[in-house]
Structures are given as structure tokens and as C-alpha cells.
Specification:
Blueprint lengths: L2 E6 L3 H12 L4 E7 L2 H10 L4 E4 L8 H6 L6 E6 L5 H6 L4 E4 L4 H29 L6 E6 L2 E6 L3 E7 L2 E6 L2 E5 L3 H7 L7 E3 L2 E3 L6 E3 L2 E4 L2 E4 L2 H15 L2
Parallel strand pairs: 1-2, 1-3, 3-4, 4-5
Antiparallel strand pairs: 6-7, 8-9, 8-12, 9-10, 11-12, 13-14, 14-15
Length: about 240
Amino acid sequence: MKIKCIIVDDEVHARKVLEKFISDIPHLKLVKSCKNALEAMQVLNNQDIDAMFLDINMPKVTGLSFLENLRHPPAVVITTAYREYAVEAFDLDVIDYLHKPIPFPRFLKAISKIEEKLKSKTEQTLISSTLDTNRQEEFIFIKADKKTIKLNFDDIVYIEGLGDYIKIHVKKKTIISKLTIKKMEELLPSDIFPRIHKSFIISLKNIVAIEGNQIEIGDTKIPIGQIYRKSFMDIINSFLKK
């Protein structure tokens, strides 16, 4: 099975280099080489893309602004001439950060990371699909502490993203699991566990109060991210109308 890729870069030479690299790897398929974020958005809206090679410094919409506003991005590898955005990029869960000019061996290393990510995603999807056949069960299974743990929905208070890991705050303890917050968002029903920030998913039933751009859950205050606010408030308003 081929990994479907897109390139997003306003520089012709940079696109040509990545196009050649992709063509040299048999299990990669270049779906589209885009010169800006708007072209890339059209592709992402119409096709399932596995990986995106994304430049940062582009006109109109920067790569990081584009990525920040994608609700369900593919695996993303940043390709840039700038080193100073690495921390911000990894906060957005990118797979790798490649500095131009990109050596082919370094590109191969990024591909290995993508393959590992997609493999993990497939395994979690299989678990999720199994549970979907019996969705009346209000729990999922996750891997943590070298065990497979049954996680009851009623026990989840909120979930905090820590890069490639998550911290699941349940009643009386926390669980650390090697899952991204994006993957956990896919595993949980969004009408019960909405994502309210790039780093937080919360349990609706455990909300104490909402004030401004913050949510109170017990003694903890959690910020509401700007791009998640509307969808979250739509859920809250649906309760107010009942």
C-alpha cells in the first residue's frame, strides 16, 4: 500500500527536490505538488492524504497558520530554511522538521517516522473499529504502562496532550499513554469528549463552569482555544435550548 503525499511550498526548486525524492521511493505516491496553502486545502478536502511536506514561509498563509487551522491534518513534515520555528511546529504535532537544503538520507529518516506513525494509527483504528461494532459499550482500550488498559468513559475527567504522549486524568489518578491527542480525539465520541484546545480534550459531564475563555473542571482551569471555541459552544448551546 502506497503512502499518499502532497507537497506545499511556494518555491519551484524546493518542490522539484521533494518531487524527485518522493519518486525515488517506490511506496510513496505524490498526489499533488502545491504552491500554496489554498491549493493544499482543496486536495485535503477531496482526498485522503497520508503525509504532507509543508513549507513555513509562504505568502498569504504561512505553513504553521495553515496547519494550526486543520482539524484533522495528515502526518506533517516541515520543510523550511528557518530553524527558529521548530518548537512551535512540534507543538502542532508535526512528525519531523527538515532544514533546507534537505539531504536525501535525512528525508528517508522522516519517511521512517511517517511509516511508524501510520502503523500506530492503523493499529488504533482496528481497535476503534472493533469497538464501533458494539458502541453501546462506554469504554475503550488503550496501551499504557506496558499493559492494555480498559478506560471507562465515566472515569475520564480530561485529557492533556504532551507531544507524542497524552496524560489521561481519571478519577483519583492519571494515566500516561503513547498516543497523540489527535488519535485520542478520534477514539472518543466528540459529543461527550469535545476537544477545546490543541492540548486538551474534556469530559462534558465533569464541567463545573464556563467563564470567558476558560473551563472549570474540579479545581483545574483549562483554556478554550480560538479555533475550537465555536464547535464547543455549539455543543453547550444545544443543551441550553433543551
